[in-house]
Amino acid sequence: MSLIEEYKLKPRDIKMLKYILDSRDNRGLSPTYREIKEEFKLASTEQVIRVANRLKLKGFLEIDPNLEGLARNLIPTDRATEAIEQWLDELNYDEGASI
Question: Measured in whole angstroms, how far is the alpha carbon of residue 38 from the centre of its chain?
């Protein structure tokens, strides 16, 4: 069973984790809650906070203790990286299967 199935992750959860991970890789820091809100066309930053809190409870995000209380404090865990890789593998499999 994949992590996506085991933890009942929604596509938006995985995409948000990937967005945060990509931001950390490309810019060296996590996006702000407002940047996440705009990227995913959410109505409010409160929605971002709810998703982030759910992902923290499931072990996919951590809070950087050096940035606690700041908007750029989200760190994807190894579990998040594994779930993203599984998701990308599934996408590649699905694309290959439809050819």
Answer: 15
Number of domains in the chain: 1
- Tell me, what CATH number does 22's domain have? 1.10.10.10
pTM of the model: 0.86
Boundaries of domain holding 69: 3-97
Q: For residue 58, give every residue at least 6 positions away whose Cβ sits within 8 Å of its Cβ, in sequence order, or none.
A: 7, 9
Predicted confidence at residue 91, as pLDDT, reads: 84
Q: With contact defined as beta carbons under 8 Å apart, do 14 and 54 qualify?
A: no
And the tokens for 40? 């995913």
Taking only the tens place, the pLDDT of each residue in 39-75 is: 999 999 999 999 999 999 999 999 888 876 667 889 9
